[in-house]
Amino acid sequence: MLILSRRVNEKIVIGEDIVVSVVEVRGDQVKLGIDAPRNVKVFRQEVFDAIQEENKMAAAAAGLKLPELDIPERIKS
Amino acid sequence: MRVKTKAYGEIDADERQLVSFPAGLLGFEKFKDYILLDAPQKPFFYLQSIDVPDLAFILIDPFLFRPDYSLDVNDDSLGDIGVSQPNDVIVFAIVTVPADGGSVTANLMGPLIINKANRLGMQTVLGDSRWRVKHDIMAELAAAKG
């Protein structure tokens, strides 16, 4: 892992088209600006962790009793 | 093709039931190949791993209980599963049934997108803050009915 320090308004360039800038530092919080092409997915780590966690819970449960759902016709169509 | 399933024991599956996730599902990246089955109760489905009998997910069409659901997935990532026209896409949400009898929820933040044309799938991550990993299906269906 590359570890480096940057000041506010300084940037890091990743590859040819990703630029990460330090927008603001306040206490233990850092605000980052990320410029990346649309096909590069940028997410907070927690989002991935949450989905991974939910997948694991869902897999553990499959096979248990399913609820009765009364889906109205107008939603079905 | 014989497949050992978590819900039904060993069954005969048709090639048309196969769905492959080239990148796997989050947390289950190693397992790529599944079959899609009807669950004993509509409108649920099972996504059963071909390799691991004990690995299965319950799926639901999210639009059934959230008619206002929407996803904005960029074309490049849809390209990963060969989607060339919107009609080929089916969307499923993964359902969690808590063992303690709590509310049955669906994950609308990380839906599954399946290309009907080639039966390739992916789990995508939505950036829209309206969609969370737990949506109470019964409550939101009741709200949708008004």
Q: Can you describe what's shown?
A:
Chain A is of the alpha+beta class and 77 residues long. Chain A has helices at 45-61, 73-76, and strands spanning 11-14, 18-26, 29-35. The termini of chain A are far apart. Chain B is mainly beta and 146 residues long. Chain B is built from two helices and ten strands. Chain B has helices at residues 75-79, 137-145; strands spanning 2-5, 9-12, 18-20, 33-38, 44-49, 56-60, 89-96, 105-115, 120-123, 135-136. In chain B, strands 3, 4, 5, 6, 7, 8, 9 and 10 form an eight-stranded antiparallel beta sheet that branches. Chain B has a two-stranded antiparallel ribbon with strand order 1-2. The chains are: A alpha+beta (77), B mainly beta (146). Chain A binds chain B through residues 38-39, 41, 43, 47-48, 50-72, 75-76, and chain B through 6-7, 25-28, 39-44, 46, 55-58, 63-65, 67, 74, 76-77, 94-99, 104, 107, 109-110, 123, 125, 127, 133-134, 137-138, 141, 144-145.
What's the SSE blueprint?
The complex is a heterodimer of chains A (77) and B (146).
Chain A: E1 11-14, E2 18-26, E3 29-35, H1 45-61, H2 73-76
Antiparallel strand pairs in A: 1-2, 2-3
Chain B: E1 2-5, E2 9-12, E3 18-20, E4 33-38, E5 44-49, E6 56-60, H1 75-79, E7 89-96, E8 105-115, E9 120-123, E10 135-136, H2 137-145
Antiparallel strand pairs in B: 1-2, 3-4, 4-5, 5-6, 6-7, 7-8, 8-9, 8-10
SSE succession of chain B: EEEEEEHEEEEH
- Structure class of chain B: mainly beta
Number of strands of chain B: 10
Terminal Cα span of chain A:
52 Å
Computed over alpha carbons, the radius of gyration of chain B is: 15 Å
- Output the number of helix runs of chain B: 2
Beta-sheet strand percentage of chain A?
A: 25-35%
Annotation, overall tally of beta strands of chain A: 3
For the report, how would you describe the main beta sheet of chain A? Answer: 3 strands, antiparallel
- Number of helical stretches of at least 4 residues of chain A: 2
For the largest beta-sheet of chain B, the strand count, sense and barrel status come to: 8 strands, antiparallel
Task: Enumerate the spans of chain A where pLDDT stays under 50 for 5 or more consecutive residues.
Answer: none
Order of strands across the main sheet of chain A? 1-2-3
Question: Which overall shape of chain B is indicated by the principal axes computed on the Cα atoms?
Answer: globular
Q: Tell me, briefly, the overall form of chain A.
A: elongated
